[in-house]
């Protein structure tokens, strides 16, 4: 089994996890500054803006990146690869332009829906240049990952996040008052500069040919359409607690959910990084006639086991000390009501690696329709349960409703994986024990070397 974890895994894991970690870390530090500088109402509006924009950005990127990677990774003809890339770019541009039109005519309506009339519309309009930049940014990112190159995407995303982080720090250092629309503008500027970095690292893969074909447009839409819809539903599901809280309660209440969510993102770093790494490998393994199912099952079980090995201890710590963690993050007791939300999120965080990898696996083996169906049913169920819980429990209703849906969804995902690829929870636990044994062995070896070095120095 060691042959499956070649140098590809080492290099791709290094850059992908580093990208996820650096983006989350810089975003987290930026958040620490903003939460100490903005009111809860402003933090709530900023959280809604990020939720709305990320739902589209991540869903669209998953559509094009996954379709691009899947089709290019199994092609040898460079002319065909160029046709795939050109067709993906055309769809990419059309989708972003459609969203820009929606913002121009519908930003005020969104502000009313989410009880943020004074802030959300202006932020969305200032983000229009960023949406134009994302057309090129996401295209170049998909091209590099289709060639199993994760170094360039890391550099582009790192620069993008670093520039926004620097702008926030500049406001804090020179005590310049924060403006929400300026934060949206900084997002747009950082996207364009990050795109420039991506272009420099993408040049060796670019053929500079725009020869889209109707056939590949159709192929990408048929395959990617399911992934986009599934990704859109999945992202809506991930943010539904904040969006429903803003709609049925107050936008300022979203600030508490966002505080807990930011901590939860740190726990999710390995899970999302693993999805990026595993997708092309599972896509290739599923194409093999010999032992294809066995390879796919092994990759799935092993990855889930590795993720749970790190997620469970971190989640348990936060569950035991939620007030301590939330106070450290917010810098005051003002966000103490978010402690229970944080505990609930951590319980869901333990279940999320299996769900994320299951959805990613369905997409990579060419079953995006099934993934869409599962996510759509989960969303509908979550909407109903969240509404009932919001009415019954009030402020904590969305968190409780999402937890109930997550538990039911985890059971459903496991049953589907067991039936589809023969996934076995016992195997996952065995692999988890292997991970802990490896960590213990390496740790003891390092400890003995340190002790021996001290003894030799003393003698």
TrEMBL record:
- InterPro entries associated with the record: Poly_Biosynth_Transport
The subcellular location is: Cell membrane
The topology of this chain with respect to the membrane is:
Multi-pass membrane protein
Q: Which Pfam families match?
A: Polysacc_synt_3 (PF13440)
UniProt keywords (A-Z) are: Cell membrane, Membrane, Transmembrane, Transmembrane helix
Tell me the domain of life.
Bacteria
Keyword Cell membrane assigned: yes
Which sequence ranges are marked TM in the entry?
12-33, 45-63, 84-106, 126-143, 155-174, 180-200, 304-329, 335-353, 365-387, 393-416
State what protein this is by name: Oligosaccharide flippase family protein
